[in-house]
Write a structure and sequence with these properties.
Length: 369
């Protein structure tokens, strides 16, 4: 078994380190260098059909749901198609309104999650065209969909998803760019720039993984706490939700992800002396707002760990500790920002002596409804 772990102590740590490769594999053959364009050979959706889409609805569970939240922001920003994201278990029972020209996208690592499959069937019955983003060829979700965009993360063994999530982000970037090209909602200059930045991500993640060892030290700051918060705005909020889930799944520390601007409407009451707050502030447009939220929690005694872009000097003035992530396009930042938080969850759980690969009560794939 040691061999399968490739020298790593656990599958989760191995899979965290496999992310640069997973990014490359998921992009491979899908970026036409000569024409600077995205090509998705497995997809039946034609450019004309892509132009015809008026609504997108996404369904997924767990970590895949968090990837869909990022996908929503990226697709809306690049194509201006309105996107709704639902938990699959909610979608299927809420009598969803599925207008004409709706594309439903199901996201599932395993391709076997019962609720996601049921939501796809519901969407089909209501006349939607159904697309899947999945990691498993021949899975039920792949078979149920008209179009499939495979992530090439490789087998994911650890229950807590890492490389499958980030590969789903890469798949969404490719899909959004393809649809934006088809619909003429992205100009060539921006497309070329985004493709270049997308292709730089694997190297940026590799470099980051080499210098993130100190995160293990930082984990000591949170292991003795029983509850904490993640805060962020926009895409930082979506990443906060995934980071919070990761921490809960494997460390058993109660944690909550909050939209930074919403804290003052209730949760601020829970902040006391020493409460850890992990503040994601990678979005330069929202930085000032997030910093004022950090000051709010600091004033109530929180211990703040900030996540900021390299070169940012502001966050260090207010946060107790700052983790820096590399610069890329704002829409691509989740693919770098989540990495240190996967490691923080990992080391926190390890310090607590938990079985990181097999957390209590959880299954890798949930095939019952
Ligand atoms: C389970 C796993 C989660 C996963 C979710 C959805 O609950 O423990 O890690 O995110 O199912 O799985 P899927 O295979 O559909 O992405």
């Amino acid at each position: 078994l040691m061999a399968e772990k490739n020298g790593f102590d656990t599958f989760m740590l191995k899979e965290i380190h496999e992310q640069p490769r997973a990014y490359r594999d998921t992009m491979r053959g899908r970026i036409d260098e000569a024409n600077q364009s995205v090509v998705l050979p497995g997809m039946h959706l034609t450019d004309e059909q892509a132009r015809d889409v008026r609504h997108i609805q996404m369904v997924a569970c767990g970590t895949a749901y968090h990837a869909a939240l990022v996908g929503k922001t990226v697709i809306e920003r690049l194509t201006r198609i309105p996107v709704e994201v639902d938990l699959a278990s909610e979608y299927r029972y809420r009598m969803p309104v599925v207008p004409d020209h709706t594309l439903v996208i199901a996201v599932s690592q395993s391709g076997e999650t019962a609720d996601t499959l049921a939501a796809m069937k519901e969407a089909k019955e209501r006349g939607a065209r159904v697309m899947a983003i999945t990691n498993v060829v021949g899975s039920s979700v792949a078979r149920e969909a008209e179009d499939v965009l495979f992530t090439l993360a490789g087998p994911e063994i650890a229950v807590a998803s890492t490389k499958a999530y980030t590969s789903q982000l890469i798949a969404f970037y490719l899909l959004a760019l393809r649809m934006a090209e088809a619909r003429g909602t992205i100009d060539k200059v921006m497309l070329v720039e985004m493709l270049a930045l997308l292709e730089r991500l694997p190297v940026q993640v590799e470099e980051m993984l080499q210098r993130l060892q100190p995160i293990e030290q930082l984990a000591h700051q949170i292991t003795r706490h029983e509850h904490l918060f993640f805060i962020g705005r926009g895409l930082d909020y979506s990443v906060a939700m995934e980071a919070s889930l990761k921490l809960k799944e494997i460390s058993y520390i109660h944690s909550e992800a909050y939209a930074a601007g919403e804290l003052k409407h209730g949760s601020l009451a829970l902040i006391e002396e020493g409460t850890p707050v992990i503040a994601l502030a990678t979005d330069e447009r929202l930085l000032e707002k997030t910093i004022s939220n950090i000051k709010e929690v600091k004033a109530r005694g929180a211990y703040v760990i900030g996540i900021a872009l390299e070169g940012n000097m502001e966050l260090a003035k207010t946060a107790d500790h700052v983790i820096y992530v590399p610069h890329t396009h704002a829409l691509l930042t989740p693919a770098v920002a989540v990495i240190p938080l996967q490691l923080l969850a990992y080391y926190t759980a390890t310090l607590r002596g938990n079985d990181v690969d097999k957390p209590r009560n959880l299954a890798k794939s949930v095939t019952v409804e």
